Protein: Kazal-like domain-containing protein
Amino acid sequence: MKVQYLLTFMTIGLSMAHSGRHMKRNDGCSTICTAEFKPVCGQGSDGTSKTFSNLCQLKAANCDKSSSSFVLLREGEC
Structure:
């Protein structure tokens, strides 16, 4: 019975330690954006302009390492 309690607590402890590693990520890339339509115009590092649904969507695009990096040009569509 004591062994069973020990194994249970070890399992819970390891599970909490493992999940804590994922929670430490604080780079803004794990943000879930709302569907609010408040368009912003962003300019990519390659010089192209793109309209995003909102500022959160622009920031989320910057998390995707395969696309160019965008900076906010102005509020509203491009």
Notes: DSSP finds two helices and three strands in the chain.
